[in-house]
Amino acid sequence: MNLHPNEVEALVQKTARDFTDRVLMPIAAQIDREEAIPRSVLKQLADLGLMAVRLPSEYGGAGASTVAYALAMQQIARGCASTAVTMAVNNMVGEVIATFGREEQKQKYCTRLASGEYCAGAFALSEPGAGSDPGGMRTTATREGDGWVIQGEKQWITNGAFAGIFVVWARTAGKEALPGAKGITCFLVEAGTPGFTVGRAEDKMGLRGSNTTSLQFDRCRVPNSAILGEINSGFKIAMMALDGGRIGVSAQAIGIARASLEESIRYAKDRQQFGSPIATFQAIQWKLADMRTELDAAHLLCMRAATLKDARKPFSSEASMSKVFSSEAAVRICNEAVQIHGGYGYTREFAAERHLRDVRVTMIYEGTSEIQRMVIARSMLA
Amino acid sequence: MDFELTEDQKLVRDTARDFAQREIAPKAAEIDKSSRWPAEILARMAELGFMGIAIPTEYGGAGLDPISYAVVMEEISAACASCGVIMSVNNSLFCDPVYKFGTEAQKHGPLTEVASGKKFGCFGLTEPMSGSDAQTMVTSAEKCEGGWRINGAKNWITNGPHADYVIVFAVTERSGGKVKHTAFLVEKGAPGYSQAPADHKLGIHAAHSCTIHFESCFVPDSAVIGKVGDGFKVAMATLDGGRIGIASQALGIARFAYEQAVSYAKERKSFGVPIAQHQAIQFMIADMATQIDAARLLIWKAAAMKGEGERHSLESAEAKLYASEMATRVAHKALQIHGGYGYSTEFPVERAYRDARITEIYEGTSEIQRIVIAANMLK
To answer: Which CATH architecture describes the domain A123-231?
Structure first.
């Protein structure tokens, strides 16, 4: 057992922490208010290697471990959760292409994601009528000549408005021939492809700086070379992306909660009531102790899932445990942080309010808490 | 970063699991019902080195690390929580402080006997009117010719009825606002030493506890553990380690309750299918499994830090707080999954429910753990 990050992991963590403290923290409220992340911030993240932490250096990545990625994600989310989710999607798009793509796909897309030439990548799996159950997907891709025609609609697409490359899942076989999620294929669709349009941005409770849109595919033609992996094996790619993505969301939740806890400690030491700082009251101390304990447990679950992934061992159930525990603990922690701040916590003058709005989605995206529990129970009852 | 046990630690765990399942588990219900001291099991645990796991072999111990200790505690407690706490008191509350603060004579004498399991040790800090707050301690020790005279009473002393040695904390200085304590190593049968009958408890029936009285009980100067006046420091350092033991006990109880619930849920049918197929049950099982893993990781973190010689008060308190509250929740849900059968003594989950409850109380209540954690955060 060794619970310490190695030198590279510690360096990646420090790089992200410094960037958060220096660049993100001062502008996080503005990003939330103006509903946009400055492009320069995304470019700086790419320059620091944080848009492609796991990609090999030959594609411009940092070549670091999942542990390093999760530690960096925690730090970026500590500064700005909207920036963190953009970073998370970019990293996972790059990783999926690097894992399943052909050499020319990697050369073209991975390098552009890593360098920041593409501001972002995007995953297009969810649909208006198909979220947790990809078997209900209605978007289709039909073979025509030497290519495919994609028809359908996607929903909740993070980075939709400015992503350069989209990973799009579509049904390529009839439900009768291949039922459930078996007849699904994964395509790489470039922004601006004729027949592919991006819908308007969603108006969300939190992560207001991140961009979320719908996508419309109306007879959108893509060549055969756009297929990622094999025909009708897209579901496997989706599951791989989600397992890895869950570690990222878990880390994001931990980062937001850590920021909330740090602000709560600062506020509790400063705020005076009944003649002494509220930190001297057990009612407040109890909250802080519970917040810290749950946060530390979440961090350990997150690191365990990441080390299993790095060791190429099965980690699906551990990633789900990490995700459900971290996100639910983080929501509780951010909620208590607002409580500790009292009326001020309900205003935008303090970051606690933003954290509570931002953290709520971690229980929903990349598989709801309910889906995580199904994954865990299936593994425990097998 | 690596969360795997080493090969040696896995071997220790497998040995403990195999022994616990073969020799303890079949007797656990009987020793709970009869409230008998499991002498023959403890003798076997001594043979395996479990009574002084982290004590060097030269003092009768097994010479292993704190993670191995936590792992064995989990396995023993998963079979029988009473055996778990008897072992924990012997290891964490007696052997650890004597090894860390004791004289060479104390280490070659009492420590070697207790760590090897030939004799038992116990720990006397709590009093009838003084638990978490050691400043209110009444038991005192007065200096006399060649030694000290101890007066007072200690209660809830686990292993007390069977112990050969007790570490007693007594006030040795009362000047000004604060009192100073000293730790003494007292042999059972010292003049003025007497025991009350064993306590009746909700759970951990086989782990006997009692009140111990000291009436002008004489101990020689050589009985002092550590320095005179340093007793509070000895107690706190001891509890940092003890909390890892109790957290592991809670983890073992929870794992047992969880395993019972899973096997029952696969068998028991309702609405035409095993209840394990209902999401209501699946979600309870998913939460139990996740929380058990979270507790184990917190425990291993604290134990790893202890092994590296780092300060681990905060981490031990987190592990103890989380694991104990987790254990009562998990035992509660496991009993719920069993329905009416869970409430009957016919199924062992009822015992787990009773046994789990103490882990939130002894070696520092959940409230004390939160004080420790908050104090560390607000420094």
So the answer is: Beta Barrel (2.40)
Cβ–Cβ < 8 Å for B169, B124: yes
pLDDT at B175: 83
**pLDDT tier at A4, thresholds 50, 70, 90:** very high
Query: For B181, what's the count of Cα atoms within 13 Å in the CB-facing half-sphere?
Result: 22
CATH number for the domain running over B233-377:
1.20.140.10
Class of CATH domain A7-118: mainly alpha
| CA separation for the pair B316, B300 (Å, rounded) | 10
A382 touches chain B (CB under 8 A): no
Query: Between B294, B318, B371, which is nearest A325 by CB?
Result: B294
Q: How far is B298 from chain A (nearest CA, A)?
A: 6
- CATH pick for A236-380 out of 3.10.105.10, 2.30.42.10, 1.20.140.10, 1.10.1740.10: 1.20.140.10
Which residues in chain B belong to E strands, given as ranges? 121-124, 140-144, 147-158, 165-173, 180-187, 193-195, 209-220, 224-225, 269-270, 273-274
Cβ atoms of residues A255 and A76 within 8 Å: yes
The ipTM estimated for the assembled molecules is 0.91
φ and ψ at A173, to 5 degrees?
-135, 150
Extents of the domains making up chain A = 7-118, 123-231, 236-380
Average pLDDT of chain B to the nearest whole number: 96
Hey, of A266, A300, A309, which one would you mutate to test binding to chain B, going by the most B CBs within 10 A of its CB?
A: A300
Q: Is the pLDDT of residue B177 over 90?
A: no
Largest CA distance in chain B: 79
- Indicate the CATH number for domain B7-120: 1.10.540.10
A165-169, B59-63, B176-180, B280-284: segment of lowest average pLDDT: B176-180
- Test A292 with B318 for CB contact under 8 angstroms: yes
Checking DSSP bridges between strand A272-273 and strand A276-277, what pairing results, if any?
A: antiparallel
Q: What number of C-beta contacts closer than 8 Å exist between A and B? A: 125
pLDDT of residue A256: 98
Where residue B139 falls among pLDDT bands split at 50, 70, 90?
Answer: very high
Chain A nearest-CA distance from B239, in A, is 18
| CATH node for B122-232 | 2.40.110.10
